[in-house]
Write a structure and sequence with these properties.
mainly beta, 9 strands
Length: 171
Amino acid sequence: MKTIACISGIFAALALSPLAQAMEVPESVTVPKGNEVAMETVGVGKIKWACEAKDDGTMGWVFKGPDAALNDADGKQVGKYYGPPATWESMDGSKITGTQLAVEPNGKGNIPLQLVEANPAEGEGHMQGVTYVQRLNTQGGAAPDMACDEAHKDKVEIVMYQADYLFYKAM
């Protein structure tokens, strides 16, 4: 119980982070009014891409999923992000999935900024009541900048990335 109280205190402190308050966020990935930051993490990890035929029959890099640690402001792991399906899980075992609402490009080589509407949480804990997840400040993670054709079919590449994940709850 002491650990949960400590983690709750960390998330409460992060909710008022200057980073969360000072960002210029594109309107397309802005969280609707009536929600406030409940916790802020930095995701550090990797994204798996595979060279394969897309739905339209052309060859291309296909997103296969993330595998990242969610860290607090001090770099301590407080959760993880993995998939598919995209799942954010707190160290207390509570977790959410969601529906992507919008993405916004964030420069060459970077995965896009993202807004996700959260599904109801599984388990009791920090993810309980999360309404939205916002991905900001992305660095890396985009599809590999290499050929994906018949000669490279089924090739898998791992790309490192980092991003801020802000978790919102209704006020």
